[in-house]
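Field reference: sequence -> structure
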Amino acid sequence: MRVYNFSAGPSMLPIEVLEEAQKEFLDFAGTGMSVTEISHRDKAFAPIVEEAEALLRELMNIPENYCVLFVQGGASQQFAAIPLNLMKSGKADYIVTGNFAKKAWQEGKIYGDARCVASSEDKTYTYIPDVDKIAFSDDADYVHITSNNTIFGTRYAKFPETKAPLVCDMSSEILSREIDVNKFGVIYAGAQKNLAPAGVTIVIARKDLIENPLPICPTMLKWKTQADNGSLYNTPPCFAIYMANLVLRHLKKLGGVKEINKVNEYKAGLLYDFIDNSSFYTNSVVKEYRSIMNVPFVTPSKELDEKFVKEAKANGLVTLKGHRLVGGMRASIYNAMPVDGVKKLVEFMKKFEQENA
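Structure field:
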């Protein structure tokens, strides 16, 4: 029996994609083998990577002067890869808007003068600093941001204009809304929220930025190494890339990022409208900066929060427990979450409120 999985990641995947993968799991493309069994050097695998890159370029309108890489290690490994590839003068600016943004900044400090130029930690990351008022350094090699805060439920309403290349962790919102890739030097994202099972990370980097990594940069973290080898320098996460390709095909069939964004805005609107009109549930994020991917909320007490999570699970609404840093509940409503799933959650929230207010 399928449930509605509100996990922040790994997240649910489209049913159509899971069924397609199931159908060809034992015999991929007439090879008589599963895609999990074939070599990345096999002629049957190369088209997967090539199609995935082509679809990603099409759906995100990625210019030719950017490389698209499929790498391992998760977005957290890129926290180190970024300074090792970009910190030429040893200086960088970071905007800290949540737990992962803070981790990226702390990793950057290992390799040079990584400066926190703005932070929303003073109000428990419930807002995004005004990007028009941030004093960025003139000598920074790059500026790092995290566009959507998975744990605390915020996102950038607008992106900063920076002299240095803008580097962005888009793990929890990639392909959920239209963005102009030209505004960024590097975009990276762990795929396990909006794109694929855990295992593959997407890196979209302007080609002129990857040419001269720091001498101490390990070979496996050099973006140029991956670019020169078509993401096949070593055995990549083959199954995760295959699944990403199926998800990208599915997204294109739905009408692309523009159309899925409309659905995402609608889903988030249903949930936020209910919370805002309730005297029982609370969302503490400044409205201007609310995420449409991750919606945290609480009831009047921790005891009721625990009861909510338990009863929701019994009703087929799972993984709603909030992150340990925040508590309460969190509904992650990524691209694959159907409208019906959000509607069922809202109906359960109404019933729970009536019985426990």
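Note: The radius of gyration is 21 Å.
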